[in-house]
Write a structure and sequence with these properties.
Rossmann fold; 2 helices; alpha+beta; four-stranded antiparallel beta sheet; 11 strands; three-stranded antiparallel beta sheet; 205 residues
């Protein structure tokens, strides 16, 4: 695409949808200078993503947001086994709890949470007050499209979810196919949050 012909969000759908299989296995596709890198996240057979110092701060902030929604408060114990936190890995839970200064019960940090999931969602978190899933649209551009055509669906209609990183430095994604399916609405949640919400994540493509 010629950048001179690109008119912003009105032309956004002209960009191709990015799938995980389109990405190289190594971290060479990172756009941040190597001096910014603090680690790479990867699983065998999956693409590596670079994490910069700024990305690590963003991840801790988003984890803290998710834990706060789950009831974490400074100086208070938080049991990790409660429903909804299955979306979070162990490093994310620890980083978020440290940001809030919440107390964790180490026995709740199950071994499977040690895994690194480079494309796991920091873009959603469970709302325990409004019984919804919220989308972090201040850090990600969220699109919902028809999985067959790639065309945008109307608000509230179930479709495939695409995300674009707005604040990621190391390995940002554009129109990334998350394999999540949901209906996303902009209504104010019962909890008072104005972030877009879904009542459920209904499947994977």
């Amino acid at each position: 695409m010629n950048p001179a012909t690109f008119g912003g969000l009105s032309d956004w759908a002209r960009l191709p949808i990015l799938h995980e299989s389109d990405l190289p296995a190594t971290a060479d596709w990172a756009v941040a200078p190597e001096s910014w890198w603090v680690r790479t996240d990867a699983l065998p057979g999956r693409p590596s993503r670079v994490v910069t110092d700024g990305d690590a701060i963003q991840q801790a902030d988003l984890a803290a947001r998710a834990l706060w929604a789950a009831g974490a408060r400074p100086g208070q114990p938080l049991r990790i086994g409660r429903p909804g936190l299955f979306l979070m890995t162990r490093p994310a839970i620890v980083a978020g709890a440290n940001r809030i200064q919440a107390l964790l019960d180490g026995s709740d940090l199950s071994l499977e949470r040690d895994r690194v999931v480079p494309f796991s969602p920091p873009f959603i978190f469970t709302c325990f007050e409004g019984e919804a899933v919220h989308w972090n649209d201040d850090h990600f551009l969220i699109e919902v499209v028809d999985p067959a055509t790639g065309e945008a669906v109307e608000p509230g209609v179930i479709g495939a979810v695409l995300i674009t990183d707005l604040t990621r430095e190391g390995s940002p994604l554009l129109r990334f196919w998350t394999r999540q399916s949901a209906a996303v609405t902009e209504t104010i949640c019962d909890c008072g949050r104005t972030l877009p919400q879904s009542r459920s994540i209904t499947g994977r493509h």
